[in-house]
């Protein structure tokens, strides 16, 4: 990538200098900082993604290796090295890249090589052709990259399943060592259509131990044991739902003496969804509400977009900055509209709930100490006019990721939304077209009925899936999509079935997102996976990924990759009228 960048910059600058020397100082200033726009290689990674210092070195190194291995003759290397050095000294904005590139090149390149004219000419032609068309750096780079891609087809040619050495190096490292497994959890359940049914907590662990469950609103304060061999399920009254606007005391508190994963499920009538509970350590002070409503709000009191805040400290001041697609929220005799601010103070176990006919996505929550945030839709009419509950525990802003493989879930119709906290530029690829999109701060971009996408965002974003069955109409759920940075190499998770109505057929699935070559190393319940329901592949950053679906039975399951290659995991299940989906777990980076 850097090699291309360097080459383009060089040619570009020469063109400018020759054409109009006066422009040199002024024109580049008007354009975006090259470091802030995606510059892609044949495999397609935005440059900004590479500037993430945590993953930078491994990516650049492997890119150069890839390039060396697949594209360049020995004889071309020295020349390119020279071009890179020469170019970079001329352009101060690429200082950082220069440093890294030179360092990496020195490591990777062998000296004593000859020059190669064809390669250089090919590149120059591309750039000169493009220069004629538009002087915007951004456009030129896009076109140039497209040219390269056309000439050399997709990145899959660069690295295939067989080329494992390079792929192993190219793994996006997970954010950190800490996971969504923990000992202390605070959570809440958001209001659904009605209250006919139950709420459930499911707890899984890798060792035996005991947990305390405390729900102040119902007077529950009990201790129970958890076994590594079973899913511990706990039925909770629907009265625990956050169901009135404003402050209530509806927190659910779980504290265990061993690390556990906790999942929450709402089974109220046919309105069902589930979520992964984040442990206390993962909570943050800044969140963005993500929800789902139809473009045209329905004239029904139940289709609300909603969110809930759960306080865990003695006293927390919280500022809510509303974003709403329409309407006004009345709270305590005050009217709140778009961009209005509401300040509240919550004490431990208190919750704050709001819902609205219009979409609240993009509403910001800023707290003086860490809180938990749930968000979703009371009853969503995703497709065909039937209500579905949607609910997730939201990842705090500080733990969001940037690179995603967006799977279409098996036997499903899905939408997804990319929610931007700050303005971002996203490279999207759907296995046939690369399209760059800009998303403004606190806005989202929605895709309907897609098949498969890869996303590379210049800044962290939240991605939510909204899926219902392809053959059934009323079973939609919402699931937070783990970014590649969130992938883990093993998960222990429950597949559950406490639907209020046991309508058939019922199916339970696992969607695995993994680098294709690492697929063979997966072990589900200690066995090789032989019976895939479906697989599809897509390339991200020259790496071939597979999206695999496996059908599962109800119960406790464990999946791992033998070589500790991280992968993403979404669990979903549905019967005729109801469905749930949730991510099985995340890897996150906890500050010491
Ligand atoms: C690049 O390296 C030079 C010299 O080692 C250093 O002064 C400069 O700060 C570095 N630039 C960046 C952006 O890292
Ligand atoms: C160059 O690109 C910019 C931004 O995409 C566009 O607004 C402009 O019309 C283009 N100019 C030409 C000559 O194509
Ligand atoms: C470009 O195409 C050539 C010829 O098909 C192939 O050998 C080479 O690996 C390709 N390079 C890239 C970077 O795709
Ligand atoms: C719950 O019970 C434990 C002891 O079992 C006690 O320490 C704690 O204060 C109780 N919590 C509440 C909120 O009642
Ligand atoms: C919360 O706000 C109140 C009133 O503005 C202030 O007195 C208090 O110090 C704040 N507490 C925290 C924890 O920020
Ligand atoms: C809300 O709280 C923030 C931060 O404490 C403060 O800056 C702002 O003035 C408050 N706004 C209102 C409307 O009370
Ligand atoms: C990919 O996106 C392009 C442009 O939006 C669209 O024309 C094409 O049909 C899509 N292809 C697939 C496989 O979804
Ligand atoms: C993406 O394209 C590759 C190569 O054309 C193909 O093998 C793969 O099945 C496609 N994936 C999807 C999801 O269409």
Q: Provide the number of structural domains.
A: 2
The tally of beta strands, per DSSP, is 35
Q: What class would the helix/strand composition place it in?
A: alpha+beta
CA-CA gap between termini: 34 Å
The radius of gyration computed from the alpha-carbon positions, rounded to a whole number of angstroms, is 25 Å
- Strand fraction band? 35-45%
State the shape.
globular
What is the makeup of the main sheet? 8 strands, antiparallel
Q: What are the low-pLDDT stretches, counting only 5+ consecutive residues below 50?
A: 1-75, 87-176
Helix content: 10-25%
Average of the residue pLDDT scores: 76
Chemical compounds bound to the protein: 2-acetamido-2-deoxy-beta-D-glucopyranose
Query: Number of helical segments?
Result: 9
